Structure formats: C-alpha cells, structure tokens
Amino acid sequence: MARPAGKHNAPIGRFSILLGCVGLLGAALILDLLWASSSYSSSAYSWAVQKTPAAVTVQEYLHKNSTKGDLKGKENGRFLSATFADLPGPELDWEKMASAPVPRLDGAAIQIKNLLYVFAGYGTIDYVHSHVDIYNFTDNTWGGRFDMPKEMAHSHLGMVTDGRYIYVVTGQYGPQCRGPTARTFVLDTRTNTWEDFVPLPVPRYAPATQLWRGRLHVMGGSKENRHTPGLEHWSIAVKDGKALEKEWKTEIPIPRGGPHRACVVIDDRLLVIGGQEGDFMAKPGSPIFKCSRRNEVVYSDVYMLDDEMKWKTLPPMPKPDSHIEFAWVIVNGSIVIVGGTTDKHPNTKKMILVGEIFRFHFASLKWSVLGKLPYRVKTTLVGFWEGYLYFTSGQRDRGPEDPSPKKVLGDVWRTKLQF
Questions:
Q1: Domain with 289 in it: what CATH number?
Q2: Pair 118, 168: CB distance under 8 Å
C-alpha cells in the first residue's frame, strides 16, 4: 500500500527535482566539450579562412594592415594547432593519365603552351636525374627527352620562363644532401639548346625565382649548408634569354628566408608564398653527404613586393605549406597550389604531407580549399590546360591513415577545375 505524501515530504521532492536539473546541465556541458574536441580540426580551418577578409582590394587590405614598410605589424601568433590534420574540402574526380618516364622528387617544371617541361630531380636518394622530359597536354604523351648541361644542378632549382626561354638558377648538385651551386643556365625551348648565364653571387639552395618587370629576381632559399635560411635578394635585367647587365643587383632582402616556396607574379605583383626555415643537412664526415634530419619550421606567410620595392604582408595560407615551388598555376585571377608539406606531427614528429588544393583569389585576398587530391603529396609539378588541372611526380603518403612520406612517383593526374 502506498504511503500518502505528507507535508514533510515536499522539500525532499523539490530537492530531487533540483538535483535532476543539475545533472542534465552537467551532461549538456560534457557533450558540448566532447563536440568541441571532435570538431577541433574543422574549427582550425574555419579560423584560418574566416580571419581573411572576404572582399577587399589589395590597397584596402594594405592600408588597414599597414606596416610602414618595416613589417613590425606582422602577425606573430600563427594558429598551428591541428595543422597536421586534413582540412575540409570537396572530393574531386581525378583521371589518371600517362605516367612520366621516371619518378621524380624535388624536380622542376615549366609550362609553355601545351607542353610541360619536367627537369631533373631525385630518382632515389642516391640517384639524381640529369635530363628533361616533355609532357604534351594535347595528346597525353611523353617525349622529346634531352640532356641537361653536366654542370647544372640536379634538384632544388630556381626556375622561370618568359614563354620561350627558361632561366635555371643554382640548386643542389648531386644526390643525398650535397651543397648548392651558383651556376645558372638558359634553355631555348625552340631549339632545346643551352647557354651559360651570369652566376649568382653565392650558391643558393631552392631559391624563390621569378621574372618581374623585365628583371630576373632570385631571393631566399637556403645557404650552402642547406639549412641556414638566406634573406638575400638579387635581380638582373634580361631579355630574350640574355642578361642586359654584367652583374646581379642587390635588392631589398626578403622578410623571411628559406626554401621550398611558391614565387608568383599576378596582376603585375610579385608574391612569395609559404616555405620553410631549415632542411636536411649532410651528416658531418660522411663521404657521400648522407642526409641528416634537422629541425624545420614550416610557415604560411605570404609576402608581396609593391611599387615602392617594399615587402608587404598578405593574408596567410589556411595552414603552413612548403615544398610548393613548382606546385602552382594561375587560373582566372587565382593562384592554385597543389599539395606540399605542413608542420610535423606533434606526437610522432614525422613529416606530414598535404592533401588539399588551395586557392588564393587575388582580387578579394581570400584563401579557400578547392578540393582534395587523390593522396597527400609533396613537390608536385603542376600545369593547367583547357580547363584541366594536372600534376605529376613528387612523394606521396603511406596511405589514408598515415600522412608521412613514402613512395616517389611518376604518376600524372588531372581534374576539371570549376570556379
């Protein structure tokens, strides 16, 4: 028989209800914390993109973020948490094309019309290529192989074209972790013949290289030991594959040195994107210059050289990205960057490859993720033809669950870009 509730039971009932409310509130808080933790990587992406202005002109952005030419206002607190994780992005339809004759790592590539000239690079850590292969976008074939000069570097080259002549600047000579050279060359793509060019003042490893307003600009990269960042910036007047001056001119130093960055001219502005400080070095006393890992700092910085020959900062990439010197193309007023490497994994300390395609819309100064690659990959060699984005070569990941580098490739892939 149920005992009737008396007046003395009322406080107990109200206390039970209060305890229940507190319990529900606590459960809600726990669920909220769990949700925030699980969505951390996507929130990192949202932060990185939303902090960039959605629709401002270059002039408006520079005025708002003016550093008076000395970069004292450059952001110091980069948001690095979870940068090793893949960022959200659409899945793309990829088509595999005819593979390159040889696999390449840290090679170089230049597109002239429907032809992609692919240079040098490692075959293995102990073997480097010393020739050029040509890919024809029109008929999906490789051909026209020819040799490079014996004195020319084999990897980590600086390279740019005026549409006929390809300027090849310094780079690493030999396999493993040998040092860089100061030698430079010019290739006439109509005759596939080489000429010597004015040597750089000092050897450089993977310098940022670009033609801008009639001058060949070379900057940054690493110094002779492969590890110490170089800040020096030189230029020389050129025309039709010839130097119009006898010596390189010293220009304003780049704000941050280091190799493996994209160097792009868009809308008559010179941009340097991403890169890293530090790299592998030769093991002391090794007769073969065996590579030895050193600390590397990958960054997302974007710098622009203005009309006054002063460096300005632009919105950073969605996450730090390196090994992208030949991984970019310009499409419809945007810079498209394919793959690369980001900060090492915070626990395993392994190198982490990038599996996204980034877009920088220059008119609005806005970064976004265009889509996902078929796998994470660094040092891609990229071209664009008749609406299709192509990439070849590089070093891919170990699989969907392991973003560290493994196999060097010669694969060619393409996808239709729509934006």
A1: 2.120.10.80
A2: no
